[in-house]
Amino acid sequence: QVQLVESGGGLVQAGGSLRLSCAASGRTFSGYAMGWFRQAPGKERDFVAAISWSDGYPFYADSVKGRFTISRDSAKNIVSLQMNSLKSEDTAVYYCAAARGLYNYWSGSAYDYWGQGTQVTVSS
């Protein structure tokens, strides 16, 4: 059974940094895409970043490009999201997700497994 467990959320001032981690277990993730999505109160869930598990190639939403970095540690089965220069509009619950490939990596419907989410709050 695949499990994704996020950690690292919290409260940070605008301009600060946080690092989210997603511990993945339950299968081999070769060929998978691992993604981060976020959902702010009253808004739809949005794509943030994704990474190819096989070769580590990253993809980013325009809103976070240049500020966020996604990476994966294949040996430890961990996907991380380093978030720098945080803004109040980054406040949301952040979810880790896994998809059986890179097709439509920006769409939540492409993902088969989801974590429970971790809250990120950026104060201005």
Structural notes for this entry:
- The structure is a single chain.
- A hairpin with a 5-residue loop joins strand 4 and strand 5.
- This protein is globular.
- The protein has no helices and eleven strands.
- The model has no long low-confidence stretch (mean pLDDT 97).
- The strands form two sheets. Strands 2, 4, 5, 6, 9, 10 and 11 form a seven-stranded mixed sheet that branches.
- It is mainly beta and 124 residues long.
- It has strands at residues 3-7, 10-13, 18-25, 33-39, 45-52, 58-60, 68-73, 78-83, 92-99, 113-114, 118-123.
- The protein is 0% helix and 51% strand.
What's the topology here?
Blueprint: E1 3-7, E2 10-13, E3 18-25, E4 33-39, E5 45-52, E6 58-60, E7 68-73, E8 78-83, E9 92-99, E10 113-114, E11 118-123
Parallel strand pairs: 2-11
Antiparallel strand pairs: 1-3, 3-8, 4-5, 4-9, 5-6, 7-8, 9-10, 9-11
